[in-house]
Specification:
The protein is mainly beta. It folds into two domains: 149 residues, Jelly Rolls (Sandwich); 106 residues, Jelly Rolls, CATH 2.60.120.10. The strands form five sheets. The chain has a seven-stranded antiparallel beta sheet. A six-stranded antiparallel beta sheet has the order 2-3-10-5-8-11, with no helix packed on it. A four-stranded antiparallel beta sheet has the order 4-9-6-7, with no helix packed on it. A hairpin with a 2-residue loop joins strand 18 and strand 19. The chain is globular. The two termini are 28 Å apart.
């Protein structure tokens, strides 16, 4: 099978820092009392965030989706980064604690996001992909996912990876999501780096203290670039790009994927010794 190159993959090596950020960085998503959405053409990704205060926020139906309601032909993964809250989909309600995940399958018509305490609001991260069929809505409690301990202090990449929305937990059409937390003293994530031609990925960095940053590395393995990220910033990672990062302190991130393959280990390695 002939694979046609993506012109953006070649062009990214020549972008200025400003253009690189415009193409692959999404900032300013988490705004109190607002729900914000962004569309990314790759895998028809929709990403966004919601911080409800005293009044719940309803999931809108953007005109660009050309649908009667948001989930008419889509599924949605949600992870709560803030205080306790409630996600309501039609007649079904989920009470979510910090770092809990909720999967909403195709067909849910009215979705709202609420906070238990406006002074300590929930902060919802949203990731959506097209869905070919309907699977049941489901909640996954963060405390029920033990996670895998990866890396080591010797290589500064000791981390705990928790698969929250994943084939091993529940059926979904495309969306796969999880949370990775770097342990104190460790700063490197996703090492060794890799690409995966059969799916794209979105990283959301959180738990980055004020005055600290994460340097996210991207691009083709022999033409790497970097983006400087802060708390609440998201990175769009195309199938041709590596995705790894190094922080000035430890931090956490949500990884989310969509595409034709949900097998977590389906990766094309990019050995550190061969990066350029």
């Amino acid at each position: 099978m002939n694979i046609h190159d993506n012109a953006l993959a070649r062009a990214a090596a020549t972008f200025s820092p400003e253009e690189l950020r415009r193409q692959f960085l999404v900032s300013g998503l988490f705004q109190p009392g607002e729900l914000k959405l962004h569309w990314w053409e790759t895998d028809r990704t929709v990403l966004g965030a919601a911080i409800p205060l005293a009044t719940p926020l309803a999931l809108p139906t953007p005109e660009g989706l050309r649908s009667a309601y948001f989930l008419e032909r889509r599924e949605l993964g949600v992870i709560n980064l803030g205080g306790p809250g409630t996600i309501q989909v039609d007649a079904q309600a989920f009470t979510v604690a910090p770092l809990d995940a909720v999967y909403l399958g195709r067909g849910g018509q009215r979705v709202t996001f609420g906070s238990a305490d406006p002074a300590n609001p929930a902060k919802y991260w949203l990731l959506s992909y097209p869905a070919h069929t309907a699977y049941p809505h489901r909640q996954v409690a963060h405390q029920d996912v033990a996670g895998d301990r990866l890396g080591s202090p010797a290589t500064a990449n000791e981390r705990i990876l928790r698969r929250m929305i994943h084939p091993g937990t529940m059926p979904t059409c495309q969306v796969v999501m999880g949370v990775t937390s770097l342990q104190p003293g460790s700063v490197w994530n996703s090492m060794p780096p890799h690409t995966h031609l059969r799916r794209s990925e979105v990283y959301l960095y959180f738990g980055v203290p004020p005055g600290q940053a994460v340097f996210h590395f991207m691009g083709q393995p022999q033409e790497t670039r970097h983006l400087v990220l802060h708390d609440g910033d998201a990175v769009l990672s195309p199938p041709w790009s590596i995705h790894c990062g190094c922080g000035t302190t430890n931090y956490s991130f949500i990884w989310g994927m969509g595409g034709e393959n949900q097998v977590f280990s389906d990766m094309d390695p990019a050995p550190v010794g061969e990066l350029r």
